[in-house]
Amino acid sequence: MDVEFWKFVNSFAPWLSAIGSLSAVFLALYLSRQDKRVRLDVSVGHRLIITPGEPGPHPECLAIKIVNVGHREAQISNLTWKTGIFKKSYAVQMTTRDLLSSPMPHRIKDGEEANYFIELDRNNDWINKFIKDFLPNFPSLRLWFIRFRVHTSIGKNFSTKLESSLKKLCLDKWSKVP
Fold first, then answer.
1. pLDDT in tens, the chain (178 residues)
2. Do 94 and 150 fall into the same domain?
3. At what angle do helices 126-134 and 164-176 cross, to 10 degrees?
4. Are strands 89-92 and 106-108 parallel, antiparallel or unpaired?
5. Is 13 left (phi over 0), alpha (psi -120 to 50) or beta?
6. Distance CA 112, CA 98 (A)
7. 22: left (phi over 0), alpha (psi -120 to 50) or beta
8. Ramachandran sector of residue 84 (left: φ over 0; alpha: ψ -120 to 50; beta: rest)
């Protein structure tokens, strides 16, 4: 090993130092921008509403839960459905003002949540209309591609798949549709 070899090896030290410094700057910028993004966790499923002291059968509902998991406040402005592979269909989910559901539009801060409940009992034919409009044929395949979306006032959309409990309910109801 001669002196020229060691000079060659030592010539890489400034380059590696510069790469390390640039990486640290980029990481710091990335982490600082994380706090400025709106982040929501969304779930959509089938639930029973159980009231203490009341005998069954308990009312069924579609439960939508939206949790703000980011550090920035978010305003929920709209709830929609999207289905289809090539020919997409869209629908707006209307909510009711009751004691269980959050108002619409609704502002949620860091760690807060918004809940929406849509009744699925015999008087409200929501689930049968949903199956008729979104699952006319090949329901198990179509359920794979249905997405529930939450829209915020700043134009950011959050999408989620249906929970298995809601998929199972839809398939059970679809098999009973005349």
1. 788 887 777 787 888 888 899 899 888 888 777 677 888 999 999 888 888 888 878 888 889 999 999 888 899 999 999 888 788 888 888 888 888 888 888 999 988 999 999 888 766 677 777 877 777 777 777 888 889 999 998 888 999 998 888 888 888 877 766 5
2. yes
3. 80
4. unpaired
5. alpha
6. 19
7. alpha
8. left
Which residue range(s) make up the domain with 104? Answer: 38-176
Q: Which residue has the tokens 């539009």?
A: 105
CATH code of the domain in which 127 resides: 2.60.40
Nearest one of 105, 130, 99 to 117, comparing CA atoms: 99
